[in-house]
Write a sequence for this structure.
């Protein structure tokens, strides 16, 4: 089995799944809303901004159905374009009202508010403002996970937590905290005040996907073999579950772990496992045993026969994925994928990139292509540069007010780009030193 065949399979997978992904989502202290201001002689806002202003005002209404409709309007606008001017003026108010909806809203309102919050973060990009989103929203998101077991509600919260952490996380501790919150949804700690519920397949799938998405962004120079061992063991158990979406999510997460984990480098006397009283060599041997078990599971899933009620498309997606995982585990070839964005090609060549791409496609749904054409933060994350620039900033697309806003070196978007690139450079340097281990059931990482 060759690397070229892997590339063909993934190109087919991405193309065949695009229609489904495009239709999958259409789903505190007081913050001053005047933190941004425009010049006094600013032009009259376009009609779309007037609709957004009306929707934002409606978030203050008492009737939940009114707030839900307003959130849908905001999501639609943010999906279909980068609402930079609106965000510059109304960032604080939108953030505050989304958090208020998460705290007091119905299941539907919470799902909408968390999605709007994630879109707000992705519109701004990595900056002080998205760090404020992370700081102010994590307590509300964490608390919302403790009440109720509706899969849609919990999945939307997990996805939002992943997005705001990925964009706004400024330190390793931010990401570790969010990943631990996610893990506790399916593995609640004793005495943690987390409601012990039996997670549904949909919740498990969302948790694993969100957790793996954050794992792609982590930089760590210490590897805790015992933590890796626990994570691999749990994910391996998911490969035996009946639900296909659970198996696919677990398979991607395991491939990612084996791609970024240099376990042999951690079997030394200063490893965290040794400090915790575990012998590093024994932990390494255990991980090697788990890898052999995963390899056998992957072989079986790559040729699984159709089961009762199984959709053929889902079965083919599973077979293709696990054939690629098998090729990776046996021969070291990471999958290559390619999809068209307008007239340009978006390509990936690692499990880390593929996990990021799949998560972003799912989160944006029908807005993915639009954001890939215009969103510079996504360009930086996925290494994509459109040949034809559709970016806010081109002379023929900007109003005079936008030109003043985004050409200014003090614009939060310019700051965001600089800060994000600096962060990525630090991560790249760190990965040359070591890798990260997530502690599945302990407080220490």
């Amino acid at each position: 089995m060759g690397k070229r065949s892997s590339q063909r399979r993934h190109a087919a997978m991405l193309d065949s799944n695009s229609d489904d992904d495009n239709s999958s989502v259409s789903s505190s202290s007081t913050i001053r809303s005047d933190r941004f201001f425009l010049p006094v002689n600013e032009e009259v806002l376009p009609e779309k901004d007037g609709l957004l202003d009306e929707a934002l005002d409606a978030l203050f209404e008492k009737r939940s159905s009114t707030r839900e409709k307003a959130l849908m309007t905001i999501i639609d606008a943010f999906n279909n374009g980068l609402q930079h001017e609106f965000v510059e003026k109304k960032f604080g108010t939108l953030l505050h009202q989304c958090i208020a909806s998460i705290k007091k809203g119905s299941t539907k309102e919470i799902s909408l508010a968390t999605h709007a919050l994630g879109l707000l973060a992705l519109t701004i990009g990595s900056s002080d403002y998205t760090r404020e989103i992370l700081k102010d929203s994590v307590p509300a998101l964490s608390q919302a996970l403790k009440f109720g077991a509706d899969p849609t509600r919990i999945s939307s919260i997990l996805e939002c937590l992943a997005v705001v952490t990925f964009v706004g996380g400024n330190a390793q501790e931010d990401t570790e905290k969010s990943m631990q919150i996610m893990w506790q949804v399916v593995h609640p700690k004793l005495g943690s005040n987390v409601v012990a519920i039996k997670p549904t397949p949909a919740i498990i799938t969302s948790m694993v996907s969100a957790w793996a998405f954050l794992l792609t962004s982590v930089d760590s120079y210490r590897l805790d073999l015992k933590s890796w061992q626990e994570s691999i063991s749990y994910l391996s158990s998911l490969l035996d579950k009946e639900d296909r979406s659970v198996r696919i999510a677990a398979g991607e997460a395991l491939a990612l772990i084996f791609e970024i984990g240099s376990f042999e480098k951690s079997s030394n006397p200063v490893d965290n496992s040794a400090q915790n009283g575990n012998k590093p060599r024994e932990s390494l041997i255990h991980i090697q045993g788990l890898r052999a078990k995963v390899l056998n599971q992957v072989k079986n899933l790559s040729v699984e026969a159709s089961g009762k009620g199984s959709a053929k498309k889902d079965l083919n997606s599973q077979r293709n994925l696990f054939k690629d995982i098998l090729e990776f585990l046996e021969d070291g070839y990471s999958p290559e994928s390619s999809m068209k964005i307008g007239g340009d090609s978006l390509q990936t060549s690692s499990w880390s990139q593929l996990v990021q791409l799949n998560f972003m496609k799912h989160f944006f749904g029908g807005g993915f292509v639009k954001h890939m054409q215009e969103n510079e933060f996504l360009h930086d994350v996925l290494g994509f540069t459109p040949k034809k620039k559709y970016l806010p900033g081109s002379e023929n697309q900007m109003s005079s007010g936008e030109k003043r806003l985004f050409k200014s070196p003090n614009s939060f978007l310019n700051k965001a780009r600089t800060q994000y690139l600096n962060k990525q450079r630090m991560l790249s340097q760190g990965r040359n030193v070591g890798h990260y281990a997530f502690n599945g059931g302990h407080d220490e990482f």
User: Anything to note?
Assistant: Confidence is low (pLDDT under 50) at residues 3-47, 266-277, 390-411, 428-445. Residues 223 and 437 are 5 Å apart (CA to CA).
